[in-house]
Amino acid sequence: MTLKMPQPEAAVLARRAAIVAALRRIVPGEGVIADPDGLRPFESDGLTAYRQPPMVVVLPETTEQVSQVLRWCHDEGVKVVPRGSGTSLSGGALPLADGVLLGLSKFNRVLEVDYDDRLAVVQPGVTNLAVTQAVEARGFYYAPDPSSQIACSIGGNVAENSGGVHCLKYGLTTNNVLGVELVMMDGEIVRLGGRHLDAAGLDLLGVVVGSEGLLGVVTEVTVRILPKPEGARALLIGFPSVESAGQCVADVIAGGIIPAGMEMMDRLAIEAAEAFVKVGYPLDVDALLIVELDGVGAECDHLIDEVTRIAEANGSTTLSASRDEAERLAFWAGRKAAFPAVGRISPDYYCMDGTIPRRRLPDVLERMAQLSAKYGLGVANVFHAGDGNLHPLILYDANKPGELDRAEAFGSDILRLCVEVGGVLTGEHGVGVEKRDLMPDMFGEEDLAQQQRVKCAFDPKGLLNPGKVFPTLHRCAELGRMHIHRGQVPHPDLPRF
Fold this sequence. Notes:
Elements: H1 10-14, H2 16-26, E1 32-33, H3 36-39, E2 56-58, H4 63-76, E3 79-83, E4 99-103, E5 110-114, E6 119-122, H5 128-135, E7 140-141, H6 154-160, H7 167-170, E8 177-183, E9 189-193, H8 204-208, E10 217-224, E11 226-227, E12 231-239, H9 242-254, E13 261-266, H10 267-277, E14 287-295, H11 297-313, E15 318-321, H12 325-336, H13 338-342, E16 348-351, E17 354-355, H14 361-375, E18 379-384, E19 389-396, H15 403-420, H16 439-442, H17 445-458, H18 476-479
Keywords: FAD, Flavoprotein, Oxidoreductase
Cofactor: FAD
Pfam families: FAD-oxidase_C, FAD_binding_4
């Protein structure tokens, strides 16, 4: 493991017994885990290549307990790492040896559903899929749908600004969250946003969504719920090359069509998914598009004809349209199961996440094939093709010396390539520790310093989730120096924290 985290503080570790005792007074019963066997399940998140048992785990049940835990840790100078379901693929919930892991799994209730205002108020430990299950009887659903939706929590979705196959038309988490209850590191409880669409003033809610647990701990989320479309149909389209499939994606969007979802898989991912779920994916193609179109019946029929025409113009070799809801869900089953399916053909895989301009997809795939040959490692590609979000799965065997290092280097080169062609380091998985040291490839020194100043405004002591996102840690005092001329701060008209 080449990853470097903040050096554990010996003085904090020496106080471990006192820290555990103090937390047990705040969260009594079984709310504090301190024994080695009990800590083991929390040593990593979905990025299992990196592991570190936490000093102690605390599992509060109320917002007041979260507030008291954070206030105590703030006053005592103890670091805190928030954790949801632990499905993060960027190491965002990787614990610290001298830190408290604050788990929110007991915050698992849907508090309110308001169909008139089309919203639900949920606790952060509620799973993504559970929101839809809570409202589907009345014909509603929650739009963002990550592939891990059966397990990932809403709080984690807020932290990483998660997406999913339907984010092309209906937006990421940030487009579907109306408000949050947030506990600051000093224990203060604040509310951002609410039951209305947009709040006045600074968009602090937009800052918090996607902040990866660096700014505060979310203890309640108000989300938009949408009425289910009258109809939805999916197309399964095979192409002889990833280039022709990529061009089809570009042409569909250029034609003014915004599908509910548009996903792409390459040959290796197709073969793995079909062997796993057996839903009838064609095995004689190099690329497969799944395009979902929703709306009233006549609209769906018209759009299917339009996408079929565009696909045929780009040389598609197979095309099937779902005839009923069961077949539509079957088309998606393989894509939703692509990650575990690849796990059947390789001892380990490293799931990447980067975003590129759609038009550069063929070029990037060709460069990735060259990188695959360079590092001697296979790669299966799954994409949110409509918005250019790539999820390459690098295949390796952790038991073979050097393969993990090669997989990491391969992944870093893929992300640098994304930035090189005009894209970004992440689409929905976050930066965490995985992409932390690549941030200077995308941002300049001044950009990073400004981002860290936002962190300092929320968490002046730097105790929340340190070691994540920023490649170089600075004390807030170092970043906060400001020239004062004759008692006047620069730009006194600007609002300040």
